[in-house]
Amino acid sequence: MIKYVRRDAETLSDDQWNEFFTNYNNNIIKAKLDDTHPKLIQLKALANEAGRPIVTDFDITGPRIVVTPNFRTFAGDVQAHNNAITEMPVLDYLVNIHYIGMMFPNNPADGTAKKQNHLTNIFLPWHRMFLLEFEEFLGSPSHYWNWYDNQEVPEKMKVANIKDVIKDGNTKFYKDLNRTSESIIDGPSKITNTKAEFKELFTNAWKSLYDSSNIDSFTKISQHIESALHNNMHNAISGDSMSNPIFSPHDPIFWFHHSFVDKIWADFYNTLSDDEKTAITDYPDNEMPFFNKKAKDIKDIKIDQKISYQGLLKDRSLVSNP
């Protein structure tokens, strides 16, 4: 039985938008974990293992986001700092597990050891589990921004609008959230000059997933989706959060972007024949920080995670030799 259907943001009704914003306010921004919560206990343990201080405060009132403590220059006792934390907002917890997940090695000698969640072959499965973690707290679907068809950030998610609807009590939580641009074909970090050029770029990247050198290697599939169909969107929106891979989940558009990246993987996987699926043999055996699962156990989002996506982005008709 499907638990959630993730929908294109452009198709959401007012009621569905209200559900998202209400749940985001109540369950992500206002809700807190105390030091008896198993997820905060796990965060402390993994931060201690990685030797990194947990970020406990995000000042978003100035021209740039300021995190405390500064994890790059922290000179104190990491474990003492982490173990002393007694409470944490859910949003801060989510940002921290993304950040701490980047602090593990990218190529551990032990093929089952924890590895970092970017620039490795756990990128796709780790972020799929991260979306599920977000939805567990949110209590509703993490819908997606279909930037293939709509190169501008969805209207309801633009800074001018979210700073009025996402609030912490009476405070505008995102009053000073900055983005360099709210279009991926406009602004200083634009990907292409026109929508047609962008769609051609995406289509070519989609076709490349089926190249004989890629299609039977999960590592290559993951690396290709991360580099060709994920990274540029962060850079094009940019600003204080989205351009910072460590703290990017602080911007709520992060979830809609990553939901679409996950959809790309899901749609690609669902277009493969059974023989092609069987031929993919290099799913990583590494433990994914925070998530007690292997990539091979979560490869089919509909069957394994009970999540469905609205519509199919692309089928095999664009591939010359399917």
Tags for this model:
two-stranded antiparallel ribbon; mainly alpha; 13 helices; single chain; two-stranded parallel sheet; 322 residues; di-copper center containing domain from catechol oxidase
What does this structure look like?
By secondary structure, the protein is mainly α. It has one domain (4-33, 122-318): Di-copper center containing domain from catechol oxidase (di-copper center containing domain from catechol oxidase). Helix content is 42%, strand content 7%. It contains 13 helices and 8 strands. The protein has helices spanning 14-29, 38-50, 78-83, 90-101, 123-138, 159-165, 195-208, 218-229, 231-237, 239-242, 253-271, 274-279, 301-304, and strands spanning 4-6, 32-34, 57-59, 66-68, 87-89, 167-168, 171-172, 307-309. The chain has a two-stranded parallel sheet. Strands 2-5 form a two-stranded antiparallel sheet. Strands 3-4 form a two-stranded antiparallel sheet. The radius of gyration is 19 Å and the shape is globular. The mean pLDDT is 91.
* Net shape: globular
Helix-strand topology string = EHEHEEHEHHHEEHHHHHHHE
> Any idea what the CATH superfamily is called?
Di-copper center containing domain from catechol oxidase
Proportion in β-strands = 5-15%
- Determine the CATH topology: di-copper center containing domain from catechol oxidase
Distance between the termini: 31 Å
| Oligomeric state as shown | single chain
Tally of DSSP β-strands: 8
Architecture (CATH level 2) name = Orthogonal Bundle
Largest sheet: 2 strands, parallel
CATH class: Mainly Alpha
Strand order across the largest sheet = 1-8
Secondary structure tally, helices:
13
Q: What radius of gyration results from the CA coordinates?
A: 19 Å
Q: What's the number of domains?
A: 1
Low-confidence stretches: none
User: What do the pLDDT scores average to?
Assistant: 91
